[in-house]
Amino acid sequence: MLAATSAETPASSPGVSTLTPTTTGDAFSRAPALQLRWAASQPAWSCRATHPHPVRWTLGAAAHFSTSSSPASPASSSSSSSSTPAPPSAPAGGPAASPPPHPLSDAEVEAAIEAAAPTSGGTNLLMAALPPRAVPYAQLMRLDKPIGTWLLALPCMWSIGLATPAGELPSLYLMALFGAGAVLLRGAGCTINDLWDRRLDAAVERTRSRPLAAGMLQPRDAVALLAVQLSLGLVILLQLNDYSKLLGAGSLLLVGAYPAMKRVTFWPQAFLGLTMNWGALLGYSAVAGQLDWAVCLPLYGAGVAWTLVYDTIYAHQDKKDDARVGVKSTALLFGAASKTYFAAFTAATAAGLVAAGLAAGAGPSYYAGAAGMVSHMAWQIKSVDLENGPDCAAKFASNKWAGGLLAAGILADKVAQSGWHEWYEAM
C-alpha cells in the first residue's frame, strides 16, 4: 500500500501542498487502506479511504493534487491554486473530509500496473511478451522467477531416471508431463502462499511488491487463478497410473499446509523440503507403478536435506523483517550457527544419494553427478555471506545447477547403460 504524506509549503506559497509518496510498514499492515495528509497554512485535515483498486485510487489521488517536491515560485503557486482545488477543512469535532477521487482510464491503469511490477529476480521472454493486465497473474505464479520450478522439477527427474530399467532411457513424455506439472504446482503453491501471507508480505521489504500485497490483484482474482492451475494440474495427474494419482493427490495437503508452518514452527523449511521433493516419490511411481522404498526413501531424504540448506540461505534475506512481524524460520533458529547446520545437512544429502544409488544399481556417472551436487553445496556454504541479501538470493538461485548436476549424472548413467546407438536412435 502506498501512503502519501504532505510537507508544509513555504510561507511564500500558501495553500500549496507537496505530496511525496512513501511506504511504511504501518501503512502496509493496514493494506489496502490509503492515507493522505494535507499540511498547509489552512487547518490540517486527513483522510483514509479503502478502495478495491489501490493502484487506480492511489494514482488518481496523486493526479488530483500537486506533486511538486520543490518550493513553488509565486507564479507557480498561483497556477497551482487555479488548477488544483483547495481541500475542504474538516468541521470542528467532525470527521475529516475526503478528497474527490480521480479515476484513471484503463490505459493508465495498465501503465500503472506495468510500472509497479517488481523487477528483481530476473525477467524472461514470456514475461516480456505478456500484456500488462496479465503481468500480475504471471508474477503471482512466479513465472518471472523460474528457479522454484526448477527446484520442484529436478527431484522428479532424478526419480524418473532411477526408476527407468537398466538398458532403457528415461521417458521424454513423462519428463515433459512432470515439467509442466512443476510449473502449475509451483504456481499454485505460490498463489496459496500469497493468499495466506498477503498482510505479512506487505510488511516485509522484499515481498511488499507482490501482486496481492501491493493491491494489483484482489484475493478473488488469486482464487480464480488457483482454480485454473489446479484444474490443469488435475489433467496432468490423470495421465499417470492409479498408484501415482493417489500419491500425487496427497501432495496437495502439503502444498496447502506449508504457509501455516511459518506461523507455528521454526522449521518451515523442513516442511517445504517434504513438499518440494515429493517428486522424488511421484516420479518413481509414475515409471514403476509403485515405490521401491530402498531407493525412494534415501533419495527423498537427500532432497529434504538439500532444501533445508538452500531455503535457509533464502530465509536469511528476510530474518530481520521476519523477527519483527513474528514469522518463524530456520534462519532465525540457527542464527550464527547456520553454516554448521548446513554442513550437517550436506553430509545427510551425500549419504542419502549414495544409499539411493546403491539400491538402484547406479553406475559411475551417477556418483559423479552426486559428487558434483554435494561439491556445489559445499561451495555455497563456504562462500555465502548470510548478512548480504543479494548474495543469499544468488546462492539460492544457483541450486538449479546443484540439482542439475545430479540429473545430468543420472541421464549419463542411463545413456552409458543403454549404449550410445540406442540414445542416438531415440533422439
From TrEMBL:
<keyword id="KW-0472">Membrane</keyword>
<feature type="compositionally biased region" description="Low complexity">
    <location>
        <begin position="1"/>
        <end position="14"/>
    </location>
</feature>
<feature type="transmembrane region" description="Helical">
    <location>
        <begin position="172"/>
        <end position="196"/>
    </location>
</feature>
<feature type="transmembrane region" description="Helical">
    <location>
        <begin position="147"/>
        <end position="166"/>
    </location>
</feature>
<keyword id="KW-1133">Transmembrane helix</keyword>
<dbReference type="GO" id="GO:0008412">
    <property type="term" value="F:4-hydroxybenzoate polyprenyltransferase activity"/>
</dbReference>
<dbReference type="Pfam" id="PF01040">
    <property type="entry name" value="UbiA"/>
</dbReference>
<keyword id="KW-0812">Transmembrane</keyword>
<dbReference type="InterPro" id="IPR006370">
    <property type="entry name" value="HB_polyprenyltransferase-like"/>
</dbReference>
<comment type="pathway">
    <text>Cofactor biosynthesis; ubiquinone biosynthesis.</text>
</comment>
<comment type="similarity">
    <text>Belongs to the UbiA prenyltransferase family.</text>
</comment>
<comment type="function">
    <text>Catalyzes the prenylation of para-hydroxybenzoate (PHB) with an all-trans polyprenyl group. Mediates the second step in the final reaction sequence of coenzyme Q (CoQ) biosynthesis, which is the condensation of the polyisoprenoid side chain with PHB, generating the first membrane-bound Q intermediate.</text>
</comment>
<dbReference type="InterPro" id="IPR000537">
    <property type="entry name" value="UbiA_prenyltransferase"/>
</dbReference>
<dbReference type="InterPro" id="IPR044878">
    <property type="entry name" value="UbiA_sf"/>
</dbReference>
<dbReference type="InterPro" id="IPR039653">
    <property type="entry name" value="Prenyltransferase"/>
</dbReference>
<dbReference type="GO" id="GO:0102930">
    <property type="term" value="F:4-hydroxybenzoate geranyltransferase activity"/>
</dbReference>
<dbReference type="GO" id="GO:0006744">
    <property type="term" value="P:ubiquinone biosynthetic process"/>
</dbReference>
<keyword id="KW-0999">Mitochondrion inner membrane</keyword>
<protein>
    <recommendedName>
        <fullName>4-hydroxybenzoate polyprenyltransferase, mitochondrial</fullName>
        <ecNumber>2.5.1.39</ecNumber>
    </recommendedName>
</protein>
<dbReference type="GO" id="GO:0008299">
    <property type="term" value="P:isoprenoid biosynthetic process"/>
</dbReference>
<keyword id="KW-0808">Transferase</keyword>
<dbReference type="GO" id="GO:0005743">
    <property type="term" value="C:mitochondrial inner membrane"/>
</dbReference>
<keyword id="KW-0831">Ubiquinone biosynthesis</keyword>
<dbReference type="InterPro" id="IPR030470">
    <property type="entry name" value="UbiA_prenylTrfase_CS"/>
</dbReference>
<keyword id="KW-0496">Mitochondrion</keyword>
<feature type="compositionally biased region" description="Low complexity">
    <location>
        <begin position="66"/>
        <end position="84"/>
    </location>
</feature>
<feature type="region of interest" description="Disordered">
    <location>
        <begin position="66"/>
        <end position="105"/>
    </location>
</feature>
<feature type="transmembrane region" description="Helical">
    <location>
        <begin position="217"/>
        <end position="237"/>
    </location>
</feature>
<keyword id="KW-0414">Isoprene biosynthesis</keyword>
<feature type="region of interest" description="Disordered">
    <location>
        <begin position="1"/>
        <end position="24"/>
    </location>
</feature>
<feature type="compositionally biased region" description="Polar residues">
    <location>
        <begin position="15"/>
        <end position="24"/>
    </location>
</feature>
